[in-house]
């Protein structure tokens, strides 16, 4: 018969292990990447100049900048997020190529890296393994996470995420291999030269307004999903998780602000209950009508009601 261990010894052992865990957390030292800080600072200085030039830009240039904003956003929302990260619908090759180009217009890292980080974010949300853990504060979750070294847990857990479907996707890997070339063409050259060549806009207005200012605005819209939509809003579907419903973010990020719903039902292609108030969803629906998208995954109204009754609060329902 094995010797019995005193209860006090077990308690002491558990306390010692808890202290070790705490020591590991304390041992993590934030390392600022000053090169990133400088780059982000310069970008915002140039964007401020672009904002000052908006009143002097031609109307067609402003419309062009808005169009680029929407295209870049779709590359993230309909492309990297709903198609490649969560596989919530299927897209034909022409649509996938279009979304890849739009993703390059948005310049938010390659589809491969963006999808990897987002899968890690969903699996380890609000932990040290979350790339933009909102529990580390608003500034960190909004922009600060891009200015410091990743927490070791992000790197460790990220290695365990299955990305084989992305490695097998020729379009994803093409963009990843030639990412700088796609950025030069679709983020800089074409956006800047179209106003100059088609309606004689100045190079200055074209670059600072149509390229830098609209790009920076889109960045903040996307970052707001990580910050505002994880901190301030309602939790009608699951009150036990951090993400919230934030209508302002959804407007800026063309449908990605209904975050409590999305984290509750990440496989829903609409990423929200309100399909008709979601620009990205309407875009995917239009593509389906054209035969470019199919197999749109969605959650039934009955399943939503059951989840609300179990973990959330009442919510306005729209028929599918």
TrEMBL record:
Its cofactor is Fe(2+). Belongs to the fatty acid desaturase type 1 family. The chain crosses the membrane at residues 32-56, 62-80, 178-199, 205-225. Pfam families: FA_desaturase. PANTHER family: ACYL-COA DESATURASE, DESATURASE 1, ISOFORM A-RELATED. InterPro entries: Acyl-CoA_DS, FA_desaturase_dom, FADS-1_CS. This is Fatty acid desaturase domain-containing protein. The keyword Magnesium does not apply. It comes from the Eukaryota. One of its GO terms (cellular component) is endoplasmic reticulum membrane. Keywords: Fatty acid biosynthesis, Fatty acid metabolism, Iron, Lipid biosynthesis, Lipid metabolism, Membrane, Metal-binding, Oxidoreductase, Transmembrane, Transmembrane helix. The histidine box domains are involved in binding the catalytic metal ions. GO terms for molecular function: iron ion binding; stearoyl-CoA 9-desaturase activity. It is found in: Membrane. Residues 60-267 form the Fatty acid desaturase domain. It is a multi-pass membrane protein. GO terms for biological process: unsaturated fatty acid biosynthetic process.
């Amino acid at each position: 018969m094995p010797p019995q261990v005193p209860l006090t010894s077990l308690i002491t052992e558990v306390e010692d292990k808890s202290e070790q865990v705490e020591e590991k957390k304390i041992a993590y030292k934030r390392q600022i990447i000053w090169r990133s800080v400088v780059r982000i600072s310069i970008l915002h200085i140039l964007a401020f100049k672009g904002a000052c030039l908006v009143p002097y830009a031609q109307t067609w240039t402003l419309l062009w900048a808005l169009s680029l904003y929407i295209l870049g956003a779709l590359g993230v929302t309909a492309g990297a997020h709903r198609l490649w990260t969560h596989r919530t619908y299927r897209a034909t090759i022409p649509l996938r190529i279009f979304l890849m180009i739009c993703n390059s217009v948005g310049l938010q890292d390659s589809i491969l890296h963006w999808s990897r980080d987002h899968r890690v974010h969903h699996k380890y949300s609000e932990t040290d393994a979350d790339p933009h853990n909102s529990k580390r504060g608003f500034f960190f979750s909004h922009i600060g996470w891009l200015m410091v070294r990743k927490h070791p847990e992000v790197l460790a857990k990220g290695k365990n995420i299955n990305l084989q479907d992305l490695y097998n996707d020729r379009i994803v890997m093409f963009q990843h291999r030639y990412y700088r070339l796609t950025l030069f063409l679709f983020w800089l050259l074409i956006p800047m030269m179209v106003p100059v060549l088609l309606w004689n806009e100045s190079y200055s207005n074209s670059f600072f307004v149509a390229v830098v200012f609209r790009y920076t605005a889109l960045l903040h819209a996307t970052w707001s999903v990580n910050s505002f939509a994880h901190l301030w809003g309602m939790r009608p579907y699951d009150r036990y998780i951090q993400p919230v419903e934030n209508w302002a973010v959804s407007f800026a990020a063309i449908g990605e602000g209904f975050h409590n719903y999305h984290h509750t039902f990440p496989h829903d292609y609409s990423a929200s209950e309100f399909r008709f108030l979601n620009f990205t969803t309407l875009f995917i629906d239009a593509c389906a009508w054209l035969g470019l998208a199919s197999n749109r995954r969605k959650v039934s109204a009955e399943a939503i009601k059951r989840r609300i009754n179990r973990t959330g609060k009442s919510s306005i329902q729209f028929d599918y």
